[in-house]
Specification:
By secondary structure, the protein is mostly helical. 73% of the residues lie in helices and 0% in strands. It is built from 10 helices and no strands. The relative contact order is 0.11.
């Protein structure tokens, strides 16, 4: 017999794909139960209702993105390497971490007028992303890797916003070209702010 924590995780993982592909409103609880092979009573033993399941699932979806993204970034040693590692991580929006595209875009659109709780979760993830990339760039400036002429907060926000927008467009067009175009521009721009010693590496 599956352990309770295993059943809960199965429900969340199955719900994540369905929510991301169909939307939360477009996914019935019975569909999640069928995919999870879990009885309705077991679901309500873990979650009072669909809303609570959706909150836990959103936390899981956003958490997976952050975990994998941060692991990729940590492969870089310098500020430029970290930012370039992020760009490498996001270069193929067609092959999304969770089937159905980028959860940040999907959840942002759906929760805007329907769920203040989910909207807040997504907003916190976006704001924390801004802070992460700003801090990486600021460390690059402080260490002399990057020119102080670079505005780290502005670059960080423009990059993240552009990447998320490209995510959506790539999915609609069925092509990674828009993302590659965006990333090429930001790579070129960041190189302009690299000090001579950093450029030689």
């Amino acid at each position: 017999m599956p352990r309770p924590e295993t059943t809960r995780q199965v429900l969340i993982e199955k719900a994540a794909v369905m929510f991301n592909e169909r939307g939360i409103a477009g996914t019935a609880v019975d569909d999640i139960l069928k995919a999870s092979k879990v009885a309705k009573g077991s679901l309500y033993g873990h979650f009072p209702g669909k809303a609570e399941l959706s909150y836990a699932t959103v936390d899981y979806m956003l958490g997976r993105i952050v975990e994998k993204r941060n692991a990729a970034i940590d492969e870089g040693k310098t500020a430029k390497e970290k930012i370039f590692a992020f760009m490498q991580f996001v270069k193929n929006p067609i092959n999304s971490i969770i089937d159905g595209g980028c959860p940040v875009i999907n959840l942002s659109v759906e929760s805007d007028d329907t769920s203040p709780i989910i909207k807040k979760k997504v907003r916190n993830m976006i704001e924390n992303s801004f802070k992460l990339f700003t801090s990486i760039l600021q460390e690059g400036i402080d260490s002399g890797q990057l020119s102080p002429k670079l505005n780290p907060e502005e670059f960080a926000q423009r990059m993240f916003i552009s990447v998320e927008g490209a995510n959506a467009i790539c999915r609609v067009l069925g092509s990674v070209k828009p993302m590659h175009l965006i990333l090429k521009g930001f790579r070129t721009e960041l190189e302009l702010y690299c000090n001579l010693e950093e450029k030689m590496h």
